[in-house]
Amino acid sequence: MNDRRIWWFFIVPCMLVALAVVMSLAAVFQYSFREFIPGSLDTGGFTLENFYNIGRPLYFLVILDTLLISLLTAIFCLLLSYPVAYALVRTEAEWLRALLVILSITPLFTGEIVRTYAWMLVLGSDGFVNSILMALGIVSAPVQFMYTKFGVIVALVHFSMPVMIILLATAISHVNRDYEKAAANLGAAPLVVFWRVTVPLTMPGIVASTVVIFAWTMSAFATPQLIGGGKVLMISNLVYLQGLSSFNFPVAAVLSAVAFIAAVGSLALVQPFVTRLERRVAQQ
Amino acid sequence: MGKFLFWTLVVAILIFLTIPAVVVIMSSVNPTETLAFPPKGFSLHWYARAFSYDDFRTSFYSGLIVTFFASTIASVIGVAAAYVTHRYAFRGRRLLEFLLAAPLIIPRFTTGFGFLLVGAGLGINNGYTIVIVTHVVLVLPFVTRSVYVSLVNVDRSLERSAANLGASPINVLLRITLPLLTPGIVGGWIIAAILSFTEFTASLYVTSYATQTLPVAMYTYVREYTDPTIAAISALLIITTTLGMFIVDRTLGLKRVLAIESH
To answer: What is the recorded membrane topology of this protein (chain B) (predicted)?
Structure first.
């Protein structure tokens, strides 16, 4: 069945897609070394100035903020997703399992615009949360959630959680249930089994998923754009501003390249660590 | 006791995940322009407005065109990608796997902006081609994953028997392997179609006014108006997607399509 003709027939479309990916990245990197000519979409000659530019506080602080917001989001995602992923994998009742999968994964498929708009309704000053808080007399004036880092992170956690749940559920489903049962039979309380058996065995998955979510969160655009409203900026918002409003393609390209390097770089950095963890788990 | 606490926690987290959708559906049938909780009545006014708004109608059709071509092309390539990476050892396989999966971790706006630049270079930024290519790149990893899981589960002895009975490799592929992969391909196609139809960030860069997809038109609307017309469209998208997920789960198994199951 290892027919060479089939291989050729199948490899060609795959290579075309790979080529498209490479071309889009090459275009970004190529533009990041070009000189910006104000008022024109054409670019000038080779320059390193764009890279100096992003060192200016205006850009640099946004890059730091992006990393911080993405990191916090990834950590909250981990804490909130693990219980759901665990329930999803370990539930035996079929209806409950189906309900858990659908409720936790569907938000991923409704798209960023729908979800961001939904969070504007939830967090707005006359929104859902404030209506409840005021009706219950907990606060007398609306609490400001919109245009704050807190609001952006809440919505981003929701943005990234479905993916985190998929990744963690995959990791948990690889854990052999017999280990958990053996520990329980030896008299360990459920919580002890969870902390001493399940969590250590899924540690490679936990680390890898958290980094993937860190990278995934950097992709968010509509959430910081609409919930942050210009007060909370991420790299994605600057790329949009520079690329599609000011038509400064070179600066937009540098910022896109920085986000790409941060995303792929963080995964590459953590990979050896994950491999070591995997080896340690395999030995146990 | 521990079990009770655990499930209380899970339910609380699920409420966090679900509440935005519920709030959207509530405000979509709220008669007044400003939000009110609880709603002050029931009205389909915003749905009527959503359907009569030209930009939403045209972008809905543009979206269908892009979605149909992107998810279909991605499904064909997804089969090819899953098959070559699972069945063949060749130089550069790891690199190919990495490049095809990379759009999952490359920021969406980097991909979108990159294809905007490529499209500008080729002078095709006003057409559907660049939008469809971008969407194929973005949804391909999901289809490949779904087909790959099906491929791992294919009983190789069926292929060997057919080959022993004299079927050519191409016949084995067409008559035995591909039919066995159908659930994975269909599941992947549906997931790809939903993701493509709701894709926003990259689409913002590669669409023009003539080719804008529904999420792009929705974004433009949200920035200009504050009335709940968007809530009506969002509610429809939420309900359709949930139904779609439900059907995929009943017929193909969502865990399998999303490759959550290990075996």
So the answer is: Multi-pass membrane protein
